[in-house]
């Protein structure tokens, strides 16, 4: 059975490209594009890996990450954070709140694919 | 000492060193011996062609005869040597500059010395510019939002182009879709990059814009958490100012702010404000009626609440009658523009047309991550009343963060300033946004 990835990102063409490369690699990809109800969507879908953008409409990815780590069965969910800001403090914040990986835009497709595979040990 | 005060003395020194009579030097330079005598005793200023002529006769560079210029050159070379020293990490590398021979170097090879000094000055200027731009990227919401927009578009283009460039076939439907996305994103990138360049071109002098007195004052207030225990306890503003390291203009502005702070603290002690706040909440009008202090002062006191009080964290903007922001305590999700004018829809500006009326409005900050606030605004006269003269008004706007669940259905959608506002239909728009048409 295919492993599930949930991609939370608000840029439609990034969603399309990442969905394509992950689907082609055999992943079942779900997407979501706003931060308002992202925490609930993650808990409902319970993916094997979550790819989470930092700058989302409605709610910051960091706030969502913090919520997910606080309980609800998502405390150990492998999470890859994506951000357009590559400053040290952003990386530190992602680590502090419990992200497993942190990736700065623009990234290569192969990097995303490799990161997702590594997060579930494929 | 003035730049060329001792030039005459140095001419005399060089002439004596060369074993030349004063009358000979005067003749070769085309001036009278008595005039050269006045010059050598620093009673006549010298420069231009005559300085060049004398230096030519004495076989020295004109700059060597100019005390100020030489001192500046030596000082700059010394700075360059120190910078070089700071960069060393102890590993074997190029030998350190021979600082003991610095003056001899400048004297024997003035051309190279000036070239080195000039390079050092340019390097310093470039470093300052880099620092300014780094600071601008960190704090300027215009740039941050614009760069985020561009990076997201670049990411989409890179991912899509990589898929299309890979060997092997892609289903025609996907291929067409990616081509369409690529076209769409490249147009978007072109638009946003042109807008960004236009924006940067309007900033003539980055370094002059950054570190302005108002910003220095804001930074000082922010570093103190917008609260001064010394003034709360009736202390002197001098006790606060002694910790500052500000220029004269910033100091003047800070004195104004702190004097008003001290008056506010005396009129409405923090303990009394917190008691009233617990009873009636953060509505400045209700608080004003409760503590019998005018609403603007109540707003300023709310903005001065220490984080440790746990009574809330409020933003505050104040403007004068021209609409210029004169006080800016921003909130994380409600930045106040550092450059240019603010959003014309803010109740802060509406209040200027309705003096002494406390206005309130729910606001939604437009953007990728809309945040909600309850704003209270009031414009009040300042200064003493004068016969047949309208009072000068200053408006204050208090920002109280709100949970999304508590917001009414139709809050007023506002921005920070037109440049970074994505709203396309807005009667208050003064100029195009540097962002794409919408998020």
Automatic annotation (TrEMBL), chain A:
What residues does the Response regulatory domain cover? 4-120
Residues annotated as coiled-coil are none
Judging by the UniProt lineage, the source's domain of life is Bacteria
Pfam families attached here? Response_reg
- What Gene3D superfamilies does the record point to? 3.40.50.2300
Keywords, comma-separated and alphabetical: DNA-binding, Phosphoprotein, Transcription, Transcription regulation, Two-component regulatory system
| GO MF annotation list | DNA binding
Alphabetical GO biological process terms: phosphorelay signal transduction system
By what name is this protein known?
Answer: Response regulator receiver domain-containing protein
UniProtKB/TrEMBL annotation, chain B:
Q: Which residues form the HTH cro/C1-type domain?
A: 11-65
The record's annotation in CDD domains points to: HTH_XRE
Which Pfam families does the UniProt entry name for this protein? Answer: HTH_3 (PF01381), ScfRs (PF09856)
Q: Which GO molecular function terms does the record list?
A: DNA binding
Q: Which Gene3D superfamilies match?
A: lambda repressor-like DNA-binding domains (1.10.260.40)
Query: What residues form the membrane-spanning segments?
Result: none
**What's this protein's name?**
HTH cro/C1-type domain-containing protein
Q: Which source organism does the UniProt entry give?
A: Primorskyibacter flagellatus
């Amino acid at each position: 059975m295919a492993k599930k990835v949930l991609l939370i990102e608000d840029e439609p063409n990034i969603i399309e490209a990442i969905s394509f490369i992950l689907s082609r690699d055999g992943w079942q990809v779900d997407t979501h594009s706003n931060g308002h109800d992202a925490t609930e969507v993650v808990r409902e879908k319970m993916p094997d890996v979550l790819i989470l953008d930092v700058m989302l409409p409605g709610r910051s990815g960091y706030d969502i990450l913090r919520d997910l780590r606080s309980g609800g069965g998502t405390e150990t969910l492998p999470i890859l954070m994506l951000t357009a800001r590559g400053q040290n403090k952003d990386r530190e914040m992602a680590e502090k709140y419990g992200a497993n990986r942190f990736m700065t835009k623009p990234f290569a497709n192969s990097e995303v694919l490799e990161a997702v595979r590594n997060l579930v040990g494929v | 000492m003035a730049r060329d005060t001792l030039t005459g003395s140095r001419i005399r020194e060089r002439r004596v060193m060369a074993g030349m009579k004063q009358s000979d030097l005067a003749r070769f330079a085309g001036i009278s011996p008595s005039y050269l005598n006045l010059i050598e005793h620093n009673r006549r200023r010298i420069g231009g062609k005559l300085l060049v002529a004398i230096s030519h006769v004495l076989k020295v560079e004109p700059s060597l005869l100019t005390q100020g210029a030489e001192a500046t050159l030596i000082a700059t070379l010394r700075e360059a040597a120190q910078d070089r020293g700071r960069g060393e990490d102890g590993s074997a590398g190029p030998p350190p500059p021979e600082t003991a021979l610095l003056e001899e170097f400048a004297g024997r090879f003035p051309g190279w010395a000036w070239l080195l000094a000039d390079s050092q000055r340019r390097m310093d200027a470039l470093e300052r510019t880099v620092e300014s731009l780094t600071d601008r990227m960190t704090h300027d919401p215009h740039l941050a939002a614009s760069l985020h927009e561009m990076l997201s578009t670049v990411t989409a283009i890179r991912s899509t182009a990589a898929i299309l460039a890979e060997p092997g076939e892609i289903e025609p439907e996907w291929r067409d879709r990616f081509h369409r996305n690529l076209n769409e994103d490249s147009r978007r990138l072109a638009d946003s990059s042109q807008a960004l360049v236009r924006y940067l071109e309007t900033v003539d002098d980055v370094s002059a814009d950054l570190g302005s007195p108002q910003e220095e004052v804001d930074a000082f207030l922010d570093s103190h958490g917008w609260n001064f225990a010394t003034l709360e306890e009736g202390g002197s503003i001098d006790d606060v100012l002694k910790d500052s390291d500000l220029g004269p203009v910033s100091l003047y502005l800070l004195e104004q702010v702190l004097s008003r702070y001290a008056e506010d603290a005396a009129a409405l002690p923090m303990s009394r404000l917190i008691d009233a706040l617990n009873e009636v909440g953060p509505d400045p009008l209700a608080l004003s009626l409760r503590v019998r202090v005018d609403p603007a002062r109540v707003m300023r006191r709310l903005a001065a609440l220490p984080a440790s009080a746990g009574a809330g964290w409020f933003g505050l903007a104040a403007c004068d009658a021209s609409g210029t922001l004169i006080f800016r305590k921003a909130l994380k999700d409600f930045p106040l523009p550092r450059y240019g004018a603010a959003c014309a829809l803010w109740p802060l500006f509406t209040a200027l047309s309705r003096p002494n009326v406390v206005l309130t409005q729910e606001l939604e900050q437009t953007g990728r991550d809309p945040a909600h606030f309850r704003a209270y605004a009031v414009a009040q006269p300042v200064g003493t009343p004068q016969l047949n003269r309208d009072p000068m008004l200053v408006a204050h706007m208090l920002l109280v963060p709100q949970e999304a669940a508590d917001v009414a259905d139709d809050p007023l959608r506002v921005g920070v300033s037109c440049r970074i506002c994505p709203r396309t239909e807005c009667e208050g728009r003064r100029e195009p946004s540097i962002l794409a048409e919408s998020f």
